[in-house]
């Protein structure tokens, strides 16, 4: 079975070797027929502490690393500096 891969934005990088990634999904409400946005936060392993707040990253399912971490960062894009 293939591992799930999700795209999200880093919202916290305060802990060592860990980033918190907010993944947003969109769906059509069954009754209102309106597009609804929902988000969920995932704790992901970042071995090199390379990703900072605002970066877009892709995370992949992994074996449990700790109580909260079941995902690892596989790639990403740095946020454009303004």
Helices and strands: which structural class? mainly beta
Round the mean pLDDT to the nearest integer and report it: 95
Q: What is the total tally of β strands?
A: 5
Question: What profile does the largest beta sheet have?
Answer: 5 strands, mixed, barrel
Order of helices and strands: EEEEE
* Residue windows where pLDDT falls under 50 for at least 5 positions: none
**Overall geometric form:** globular
Order of neighbouring strands in the sheet with most strands: 1-2-3-5-4
GO molecular function: rRNA binding; structural constituent of ribosome
Function: One of the primary rRNA binding proteins, it binds specifically to the 5'-end of 16S ribosomal RNA.
InterPro entries: NA-bd_OB-fold, Ribosomal_uS17, Ribosomal_uS17_bact/chlr, Ribosomal_uS17_CS
Family: Belongs to the universal ribosomal protein uS17 family.
Using brief descriptors, characterize the structure shown.
82 residues; mainly beta; OB fold (Dihydrolipoamide Acetyltransferase, E2P); 5-stranded mixed barrel; globular
Please render the helix and strand layout as text:
Elements (H helix, E strand, L loop, with lengths): L4 E8 L5 E11 L6 E11 L10 E6 L9 E7 L5
Parallel strand pairs: 3-5
Antiparallel strand pairs: 1-2, 1-4, 2-3, 4-5
What does this protein look like?
It comes from Xanthobacter autotrophicus (strain ATCC BAA-1158 / Py2). Part of the 30S ribosomal subunit. InterPro entries: NA-bd_OB-fold (IPR012340), Ribosomal_uS17 (IPR000266), Ribosomal_uS17_bact/chlr (IPR019984), Ribosomal_uS17_CS (IPR019979). It holds the Pfam family Ribosomal_S17. The chain has 82 residues and is mostly beta strands. The chain is 0% helix and 52% strand. It has strands at 5-12, 18-28, 35-45, 56-61, 71-77. It has a five-stranded mixed barrel. β1 (5-12) and β2 (18-28) form a beta hairpin. The termini are far apart. The model has no long low-confidence stretch (mean pLDDT 95).
């Amino acid at each position: 079975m293939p591992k799930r891969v999700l795209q999200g934005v880093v919202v916290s990088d305060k802990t060592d070797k860990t980033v918190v990634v907010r993944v947003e999904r969109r769906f059509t409400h069954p009754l209102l027929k309106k597009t609804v946005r929902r988000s969920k936060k995932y704790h992901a392993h970042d071995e090199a502490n390379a990703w900072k707040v605002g970066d877009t990253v892709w995370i992949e399912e992994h074996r449990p690393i700790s109580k909260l971490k079941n995902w690892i960062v596989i790639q990403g894009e740095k946020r454009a500096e303004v």
